[in-house]
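Good morning N.,

You mentioned wanting to compare the apo and holo forms, so I went ahead and generated the holo version with iron/sulfur cluster. This is what I fed in:
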Amino acid sequence: MEASTVTNQILSGSEKGGKTYAFNDGHDPDKPADFWFQNSEDGLVLFIVFFTQACRWSRCLGCNLPGQMASFHVPFTHIMAQVDYLFGLSDVVEKQMDIRKVIVSNNGSVLDQETFSSTALMYLMAKLNLPNLSVLSLETRPEFADFAELEFLSRALAEGETPTALEIAIGFEAFDDTLRNAVFDKGLTLSVFETFLETVAPYGYRLKTYFMQKPVPGMSDDDAVRDISDAIFYLGRMGKKYGVPINMHLNPTYAARGTVLEAAFKDGSFTPPFLTDVARAALAGKDAGISIFIGLSDEGLAVPGGSFVREGEDPLIKELETFNRTQDYSILDRIAKTTFSF
Ligand code: SF4
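and this is what came out, ligand included:
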């Protein structure tokens, strides 16, 4: 596909989604957009956001992740240089024996070869032969997970020194169909999701689904809790039906700069969810047969005051981090019964 066609797709998506942010075109293309360490039930996680051309969909309401990326094509040589840069950093070298999971993102679709070159992905796979790596997670829209690419990834992982499970991570955002597609403009139907599950099931891959609690303006806190619990029950049923282990990555929504949520936050039609309600929603996972990870960072992308973390909530954050590591539901029980005053 012509590079200009991809750029036009990004620009028209941004326009449709009412985005007002600028792209990060001045970023050094030989360095990743961001990376950080976090803890999960899998152990130490290295989360990498490679700097590439932005997400081709770009229109989802409230998402400003494409604004961290380039509007132009980033050639594979630069993405490979980002791999070298990252794995040469002393912080990464020192922790490499402890890294159990690597999450690979480009704030879009790592499996979209128009924005993340297959050559660079192969290079990354070779570099990821870390001594104790047990899970590799790749973020993508489901339509880019094609048969040939899954075959190649499966073979590459089998050749590694340690057994490594592959997790495909997709954005779902909201469970209610109207909210997800008519309001949020995610462009994902349940039938596409279930076909995707059927495609990945034979490979034994794991699946991560990203959800947002209270993703659109005008939604009550109770409706937001209900949407997440409905999603948890549905994922539990689908995981059993297709034999795919599923994790829900639950992100409380923040007012992202340069999106309609910024305007809604300013006019009072959107307030970020409370962490107590996030715990209440996640409680539905207790016997659902899926694991849950609660996202606790707004990655610095919220407008001032527009984050879901309110003053004095550090102890609550610590408790939720412990839940992420342990899946101990008594923690959520306790938080959900607590009323905090702000
Ligand atoms: S939510 Fe994902 S698919 Fe939608 S615009 Fe953002 S990065 Fe693209």
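The first strand starts at residue 34 and ends at 40.

Happy to go through it together on a call whenever suits you.

Best,
F.
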